[in-house]
Amino acid sequence: MNITENAQLRSACRGLTLQDHWDSSQLRRAFGQFATGVTVITTRSKTGLNVGLTANSFSSLSLDPALISWSLGIGQRSLADFQSSSHFAINILSAAQIELARRFSSTVEHRFAGVDFVEDEVAAPVIRGCTAWLICRCYRALHLGDHLLFVGKVEALGVNGGEPLLFHDGRYGALHDDAAARQEVQ
Looking at the domain assignment, is residue 179 inside a domain? Predict the structure, then answer.
């Protein structure tokens, strides 16, 4: 059933603009209204090279077992590296790391050059200065639409805390720290 053909639904939605036909730019704009955190997801290629990219598709999935998810477009050049790797790291960026977000979302060939990160004795590169990081074993990879959804089982983590880097409506930003507006979620 098409929502605009249902009289009861149309009546309930009076005053709202609902579109049941849209193009990808309208859908992208709607998705962009959801503010997300920003991560750099890292792994190692089969040849041992460090691979990383900026992603805001990260989400917690389950506490028991400890599972997270993120997705990568099918056309991305690093897809094969993530598909063939047993582990990846989720580096949750701080507001001070906006240049890292830009760097890892660019076409710069040597993205790790000059970046302070740990690679020895960890399963995937971990970037210093992040608010948190998670090292995950690839648990599942599912082809859904034009993306591959990765589910990772958390094997190690660290938390620094601090101001997170956010992404909303195509722009990076930070939280407005208004103590009167802040509420802790339980």
Answer: no
